[in-house]
Amino acid sequence: MEKKKLVLIGNGMAGIRTIEEILKLLPDQFDITVFGKEPYPNYNRIQLSKVLQGDTEIKDITLNEWQWYEDNGILLYPGETVTKIDKDNQMLYTDKGKETPYDHLIIATGSNPFMLPLPGADKEGVTAFRDIEDCEKMIDASKNYKRAAVIGGGLLGLEAARGLLNLGMEVDVIHLADYLMERQLDRAAGELLQKELASQGMNFYLEKQTAEITGKKRVTGLKFKDGGAIPADLVVMAVGIKPNVALAQESGVEVNKGIVVNDHMETNVPNIYAVGECAEHDQMVYGLVAPLYEQGQALAKHISGMNHQGYQGSVLSTQLKVSGVDVFSTGLINETAETKSIKVFDEWQNTYKKILVQDDKLTGAVLFGDTKEGTKLLSLIKKGANVEEYLESQQGADNGESIVTSMSDDEIICGCNGVSKGAIVNSIKADGLSSVEEVKGATNASRSCGTCKNLVSELLTDTLGDEYEADTKESVCACTDLTRDEVVAEIKEKGLTHTKEVMNVLEWKTEEGCSKCKPALNYYLGMVYPKEHEDERESRFVNERLHANIQKDGTYSVVPRMYGGVTNASDLRTIADVAEKYEVGMIKLTGGQRIDLLGVKKEDLPDVWKDLGMPSGYAYGKSVRTVKTCVGAEFCRFGTQDSTGMGIQLEKKFEGLNTPHKVKMGVSACPRNCAEGGVKDVGVVGLDGVWEVYVGGNGGTELRQAELLVKVKSEEEVLEYTAAFLQYYRENASYLERTSHYVERVGVEHVQEIVNDDQLRKELNERMDQALGTYKEPWNEVLESETTLKDLYEKVATK
Amino acid sequence: MEQTVRKVRIGNYDDLPVSLGKAVVVEDKEIAVFRLSNGNIKAIENKCPHRGGVLSEGMVSGEHVFCPLHDWKINVSDGLVQAPDDGCVQTYKTTIEDNQVYVEVPEK
Ligand SMILES: Cc1cc2nc3c(=O)[nH]c(=O)nc-3n(C[C@H](O)[C@H](O)[C@H](O)COP(=O)(O)OP(=O)(O)OC[C@H]3O[C@@H](n4cnc5c(N)ncnc54)[C@H](O)[C@@H]3O)c2cc1C
Ligand code: HEM
Ligand code: SF4
Ligand code: FES
């Protein structure tokens, strides 16, 4: 039997959720095709606020990776818009000239932002806040412009405003009503919110109506109806959305405010359905994901031919996603003659709570400052609970019990996805889940707006007890529950000197640790006691134990030191001779400007080193590896500084330094940056009379651009600031944490504060000098020790 | 049928480094011999079941060795690969007489 063709218009949150639900019910029933106007896989639109606020990145908000479409046999046409539906012949047409027949058609085209038809609204610098493109536009604008005006003081507008503040802009919010978020909040909460946001630096113009957007090509300001005006070089319109129904309407599908659907999400045209923000059910159009997901579920059941009561409308709740400001609202919130309210205003803690009661039933709630009760209130209101039930549950909470403990199993934890406490607890137990991420994967809870993460985490604690607590702080490895910081503190405090001693005293769960903690402890001990600690060869990974890089066939590679990547004819001749004598498998230039001799047998290593007579290039260690340099002022026509000289000085100084992970450097003599310092742990760029020092770059697994640490004048200062940075990294990063992760984690501003403090920099340099003082050239050390040669390099042959 | 074994002397007990492995060639085989921190001597096939890593160069913790190539964890007493990975390596019985270490390998 040929599969039925199911086509989805709109690759967004509601449509794809519907497909997910269908695949869950009937995995192989349909040939699925998806058209999406945006050139991305389905992403979490809600998190655009967090992207703008700098809490996450666009690449991290994808909900369904490209691979997901492929794995499920879904044909996706990203960046392709459906332009016409021929309902009589059940055909679709797209802007790229494609024609596609369908058996079932789901319209999930979402909404368009409502753009006020003001004079000047088409100027450059006017944007909505709806999709990735808008988000990128704002981020770009923040780099070149200073003043932003956000029209609309609702959820979306305030989240945009907070984002723009974080991006360093001055932000004015223009709002028509006389308090903020008037649709979700009462006046008291709205005013508290305004006070809080004002203290974060937002500026408000309430009861103002914009009359005109001024400027030539690009916007320069706003004019108000009452005559006032303000300057602005970015205008964000966040005054509302309107269902995107043009396509449906032109194709003869019944449209009112949205595309009109019944309880099964069917339109008036056979085989055409609508879900999401574009759909109108029972005269309601929704703009939040929770109801849209319920619609998707209902439609999935219907299309899959399951008996089902259909979609019954939703009770909404909203939360503002601005860090440091907790606001929650649900149900009916405006007081009338028939309502009574419970109000608690705590001026000291700046929290406000209002719960509306009508005929003894809870009908709505507003929370400000502390929103922990939100999900609980929502589920009580949804089920039309009596006020008594709420007051009883309050007592548990007052006893310091976690709020989730007192919830019943059918109460909803994740509002967006409608996941109940019972469902999560069952999944934790049945599937052995132990982290919020795992719960998200298994149940969808916290997958959308993310505000219920805390509740999920509390449920994990509640269900798993201490086991979970231990897992949430990142321990050194599975052998202990202690974190890196705790272990280092204990080493210092108790004066521990040997990895085994650390494991014993700190009650490791395993007898002798594992391949993660052994080298980590060995490193921490050496970092804390540079002079006293005796390096433990058995706690070293093979490469660092043998001072050569193990290859997949058990042979090794040898990289001689070549300071700054500069060599000479006689060294090259020696290298060539050695390569011939020991018949090395391959001679290759490394990414770090060195010569690599590959395929050397372990037994030959000492002889190879002896014949080379050069120091170890440390190409194998968690240590300072190479300093790449560009040609520089000596020869290059663009060069402004002696980059090779600088590089050689750096490499000579930090040679052999043990670090949490490998450290690679680059020095260039002009911004062309031929030594690629932009992707190095330390990248130095010479300009006329100035050196720039960049840190935290990475060109490997996770590409990261280095950030400017400092600009200095002299070569001595480059050495001094680099030393301070490296020592601070050595003392504070976790073992195996690259500078890129470390700098990302603590922020370059923090590191700058440290190294720019004269006293701290001096002390860091002193400790660095101590560490460097213990360096011994390792190849030579091996050659001089009979026992090491015998223990480590000799192979036993038997008869 | 009982497999006969041959005892091969591989050297002086004191010459084996503590908490480290040593590669020993016996006929056409390479055997990894470990002197554990508790003093015991263990011997296993010197080839990781994953991609042939040289186990004698692995890090030794208690009864386990971690393969130097991709960190598989292998018990040196029973030769079993530890979860989440799966597999096993050949083990060989060892004896110590007069401070000399012997490995028992199957007679050909
Ligand atoms: C910044 C921001 C913050 C938000 N915060 C929250 C929140 O905290 N909580 C919450 O519940 N909700 C929030 N929302 C709302 C939520 O994101 C939306 O309700 C939800 O994304 C709507 O889903 P949808 O599938 O109906 O529409 P969309 O996700 O918009 O998907 C529709 C897709 O269809 C595409 N499309 C349209 N026409 C065509 C065509 N003809 N052919 C092909 N493709 C087409 C569109 O380009 C779009 O990609 C927020 C929204 C924004 C913008
Ligand atoms: C902890 C578990 C594992 C780790 C850390 C790991 C790591 C790696 C690494 C780093 C490589 C590339 C090595 C090289 O090219 O030399 C590799 C290759 C490979 N691994 Fe694993 N691996 C693991 C488990 C497995 C398992 C369980 C299997 C199979 C059942 C497997 C099969 C392979 C195969 C077939 C290759 C070769 C792939 C290729 O050459 O393209 N690995 N592994
Ligand atoms: S970075 Fe500048 S100075 Fe150095 S080699 Fe390249 S172009 Fe020349
Ligand atoms: S070869 Fe041993 S883990 Fe891969």
From TrEMBL, chain A:
InterPro entries reported for this sequence: BFD-like_2Fe2S-bd_dom, BFD-like_2Fe2S-bd_dom_sf, FAD/NAD-bd_sf, FAD/NAD-binding_dom, FAD/NAD-linked_Rdtase_dimer_sf, NasD-like, NiRdtase/SiRdtase_haem-b_fer, Nit/Sulf_reduc_fer-like_dom_sf
Pfam family name, one: Fer2_BFD
Domain NADH-rubredoxin oxidoreductase C-terminal: 317-384
Keywords: 2Fe-2S, 4Fe-4S, FAD, Flavoprotein, Heme, Iron, Iron-sulfur, Metal-binding, Nitrate assimilation, Oxidoreductase
Span of domain BFD-like [2Fe-2S]-binding: 412-460, 476-525
Names of the cofactor(s): [4Fe-4S] cluster; [2Fe-2S] cluster; FAD; siroheme
Residue ranges of domain Nitrite/sulphite reductase 4Fe-4S in the record: 621-758
Record-annotated Nitrite/Sulfite reductase ferredoxin-like domain positions: 551-612
Pathway, per record: Nitrogen metabolism; nitrate reduction (assimilation)
GO MF annotations in UniProt: 2 iron, 2 sulfur cluster binding; 4 iron, 4 sulfur cluster binding; flavin adenine dinucleotide binding; heme binding; metal ion binding; NADP binding; nitrite reductase activity
Record-linked SUPFAM superfamilies: FAD/NAD(P)-binding domain (SSF51905), Nitrite and sulphite reductase 4Fe-4S domain-like (SSF56014), Nitrite/Sulfite reductase N-terminal domain-like (SSF55124)
GO BP terms: nitrate assimilation
UniProt remark on cofactor binding: Binds 1 [4Fe-4S] cluster per subunit.
PANTHER family: NITRITE REDUCTASE (NADH) LARGE SUBUNIT
Protein name as annotated: Assimilatory nitrite reductase (NAD(P)H) large subunit
Species, as recorded: Gracilibacillus orientalis
UniProtKB/TrEMBL annotation, chain B:
Matches recorded under Pfam families: Rieske (PF00355)
Keyword annotations from UniProtKB, A to Z: 2Fe-2S, Iron, Iron-sulfur, Metal-binding, Nitrate assimilation, Oxidoreductase
Domain Rieske per the UniProt entry, residue ranges: 8-103
Gene3D superfamilies referenced in this protein's UniProt entry, alphabetically: Rieske [2Fe-2S] iron-sulphur domain
InterPro entries (UniProt xref): Rieske-like_NirD, Rieske_2Fe-2S, Rieske_2Fe-2S_sf
GO annotation terms (biological process): nitrate assimilation
GO molecular function terms noted in the UniProt entry: 2 iron, 2 sulfur cluster binding; metal ion binding; monooxygenase activity; nitrite reductase [NAD(P)H] activity; oxidoreductase activity, acting on paired donors, with incorporation or reduction of molecular oxygen
UniProt key word Metal-binding: yes
Keyword Oxidoreductase: yes
PANTHER family, sorted: 3-PHENYLPROPIONATE_CINNAMIC ACID DIOXYGENASE FERREDOXIN SUBUNIT (PTHR21496:SF23), FERREDOXIN-RELATED (PTHR21496)
Protein name: Nitrite reductase (NADH) small subunit
Species annotation: Gracilibacillus orientalis
